[in-house]
């Protein structure tokens, strides 16, 4: 199986550091103190003034560990205006100088990897090693964005006509906004912010109100790395803040990741207000297991991709599709045993396969879907409901669940559950297996496990989804390729990171120049052509 390297053992930097929330997170969680969080505007933390707050929970204990301010439209306006002003100067920095800020930011984040991951895990509930992966996958896009001097180079044609040269340049848009989900509080903000600011834009992030502390810490690290105040801002909030961002006259582009209904709303509202928008939504990722697949490999891939991070990943595998009855029988037997043996623990238990869900509401939603699946007639082979973590009885834990004989008319198949629940949908033949992900409302990722190169190639070409894995269960593309789903998994035209991100965060200006050198010329009344 393809292994994505996690190399965060870089040398420590002897630098003077800002003491941020990352340095105090463990004390905060252990003592049960409630921290008042802030916004990050114009290079510093700023207390909320709206009077509205939301609770940030510790999913391991179920207790409230912090309060996050919810910005008013006036606070949003102040942040966007400041960002617009900062952008004018930032865009004048040459690309190499901008890249150096990102390089320094990478060093600071690597130095702080452990505390960032622990802080992230304490609010999200994922395990610390998984949280390191969250930060690391974000940093890989920052690494990509450090290539901005090369990525921003335009095109040039010498002698397009007599004495005529044509060249194009990519210029920043102004203020870009990111509205991001709870499930990757480091990775997705960095996927959006790093290319945006590398291109010379300023950025206002509206992170998830469930786990805002890592985004706030990243903002501090950006400033410590030399980013001018106002270029990267964090405004916490709910729909009020989001709507103020979507309609603000100084916002040029909106990048969103979250659930599909909200993605569709953000896309239509932002574009109706003249913004460029790319909005990524929910998912139901299938894994096809062909009769020739190595079943042990397939089972390991299914449990890792299905239950890792408690299934709270947009690229989680939530549907297994064995092809043919013998494959299904053998797969289900092995899978049931493996799922029964999964180890659930707190975020800080290094031996845990996965931790708690993010909120009590998320846990209730998962439990409700399992009840729906039973009512619909699916076979519940492993029931994770009722799981209690010893000494953490109020934590938002749920066990792993496994359904067999799920059919394509069931709600548990058609809707995103976003929890540790895997559904087996048996397909009689390959064409039926191909149709399932292709006809599903979501089209984020899909995987096929097979030893047959022809079958894999044919599947990759025909399946109607945005990202395909061949013997790779979570085919999140590397930073210098692009990431994006189809159908109700993506609204807008361009993908995230890779070359599309440079296109999204810039607009192209094309210059046609001519130096007539004093020749006498007469007006031409026909459209100029090249001949
Ligand atoms: P969510 O849609 O509830 O929230 C996402 C963001 O939108 C948050 O910042 C939230 O504050 C904001 N928001 C929520 N309701 C809003 C409203 N009514 N008006 C305006 N803004 C609103 O999503 P979530 O629960 O945080 O994240 C999980 C979802 O994200 C899942 O559906 C998952 O599949 C999806 N996701 C998709 C991708 C992808 O790349 N396609 C990646 C990660 C997560």
UniProtKB/TrEMBL annotation:
Alphabetized UniProt keyword annotations: NAD, Oxidoreductase
One Pfam family, short name: Aldedh
Enzyme class (EC, first level): oxidoreductase
GO biological process: L-valine catabolic process; thymine catabolic process
Domain Aldehyde dehydrogenase: 52-511
UniProt KW NAD keyword: yes
Its EC number(s): 1.2.1.27
Gene Ontology MF terms: methylmalonate-semialdehyde dehydrogenase (acylating, NAD) activity
Oxidoreductase keyword on record: yes
PROSITE patterns: ALDEHYDE_DEHYDR_CYS
Domain of life: Bacteria
Matches recorded under NCBIfam families: MMSDH (TIGR01722)
PANTHER family registered for this protein in UniProt: MALONATE-SEMIALDEHYDE DEHYDROGENASE (PTHR43866)
UniProt name for this protein: methylmalonate-semialdehyde dehydrogenase (CoA acylating)
Gene source species: Actinopolyspora mzabensis
């Amino acid at each position: 199986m393809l292994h994505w390297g996690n190399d965060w053992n870089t040398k420590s930097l002897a630098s003077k550091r800002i003491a941020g929330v990352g340095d105090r997170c463990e004390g905060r969680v252990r003592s049960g103190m409630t921290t008042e969080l802030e916004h990050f505007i114009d290079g510093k933390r700023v207390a909320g003034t709206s009077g509205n707050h939301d609770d940030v929970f510790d999913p391991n204990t179920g207790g409230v560990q912090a309060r996050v301010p919810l910005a008013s439209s006036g606070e949003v306006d102040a942040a966007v205006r400041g960002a617009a002003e900062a952008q004018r100067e930032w865009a004048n920095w040459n690309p190499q100088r901008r890249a150096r800020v990102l390089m320094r930011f990478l060093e600071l984040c690597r130095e702080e990897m452990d505390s960032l991951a622990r802080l992230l895990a304490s609010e999200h509930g994922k395990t610390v090693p998984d949280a390191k992966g969250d930060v690391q996958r974000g940093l890989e896009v920052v690494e990509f964005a450090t290539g901005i001097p090369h990525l921003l180079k335009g095109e040039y044609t010498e002698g397009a006509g007599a004495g005529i040269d044509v060249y194009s340049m990519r210029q920043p848009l102004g203020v870009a906004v990111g509205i991001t989900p709870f499930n990757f509080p480091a990775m997705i903000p960095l996927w959006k912010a790093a290319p945006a600011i590398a291109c010379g834009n300023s950025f206002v992030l509206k992170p998830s109100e469930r786990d805002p502390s890592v985004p706030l810490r990243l903002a501090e690290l950006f400033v410590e790395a030399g980013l001018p105040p106002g270029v990267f801002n964090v405004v916490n909030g709910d729909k009020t803040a989001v709507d103020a961002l979507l309609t603000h006259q100084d916002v040029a582009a909106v990048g969103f990741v979250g659930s599909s209904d909200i993605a569709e709303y953000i896309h239509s509202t932002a574009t109706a207000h003249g913004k460029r928008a790319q909005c990524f939504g929910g998912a139901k990722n299938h894994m096809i297991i062909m009769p020739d697949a190595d079943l042990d490999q397939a089972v390991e891939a299914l449990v890792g991709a299905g239950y890792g991070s408690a299934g709270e990943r947009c690229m989680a595998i939530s549907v297994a599709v064995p092809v043919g009855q013998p494959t299904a029988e053998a797969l289900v037997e092995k899978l049931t045993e493996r799922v029964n043996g999964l180890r659930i623990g707190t975020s800080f238990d290094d031996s845990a396969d996965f931790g708690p869900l993010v909120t009590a509401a998320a846990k209730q939603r998962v439990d409700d879907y399992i009840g729906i699946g039973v009512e619909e007639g699916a076979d519940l082979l492993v029931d994770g409901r009722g799981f209690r973590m010893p000494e953490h009885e109020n934590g938002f834990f749920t066990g792993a669940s496994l359904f067999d004989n799920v059919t394509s008319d069931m709600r548990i198949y058609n809707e995103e559950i976003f929890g540790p629940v895997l559904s087996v949908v048996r397909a009689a033949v390959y064409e039926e297996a191909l149709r399932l992900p292709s006809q599903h409302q979501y089209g984020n990722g899909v995987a096929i496990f097979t030893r047959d190169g022809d079958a894999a190639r044919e599947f990759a070409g025909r399946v109607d989804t945005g990202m395909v894995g061949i013997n790779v269960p979570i085919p999140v593309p590397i930073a210098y390729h692009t990431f994006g789903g189809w159908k109700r998994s993506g609204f807008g035209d361009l993908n995230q990171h890779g070359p599309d991100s440079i296109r999204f965060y810039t607009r192209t200006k094309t210059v046609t120049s001519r130096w007539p050198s004093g020749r006498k010329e007469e007006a031409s009344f026909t459209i100029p052509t090249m001949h």
